[in-house]
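Tutorial handout. Part one gives the primary structure; part two gives the three-dimensional structure as tokens.
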Amino acid sequence: MSYSVAQRTHEIGIRMALGARRTDVLRMTVKQGLRLVSVGMLLGLAAAVLLTRVLASLLFGISATDPITFIGISLVLLAVAIFASYVPALRATRVDPIVALRVQ
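Part two.
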């Protein structure tokens, strides 16, 4: 996300110069990050469910499709993704529009 925000510095500068509020830029950047994470989580959960059938014979004392584990890990991953999207977004809102317009 940090790299993506750095690549879009010029665009963010134009948006802010045209009157976009800091909250709009923050929301846009976090939404982009969460979109990527949601696709990854869906693909990861689907792969995990498929792989649990293969690994079920190796597990002892726990169900291969334990819903608490799947939900818990998904929530932790979501929290980390929100934080990882929020920090570069916050940095992007502090960019001076004039400086961002000069950078290409």
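Part three, for discussion. The chain is about 80% helix and 0% strand. The chain has a mean pLDDT of 85.
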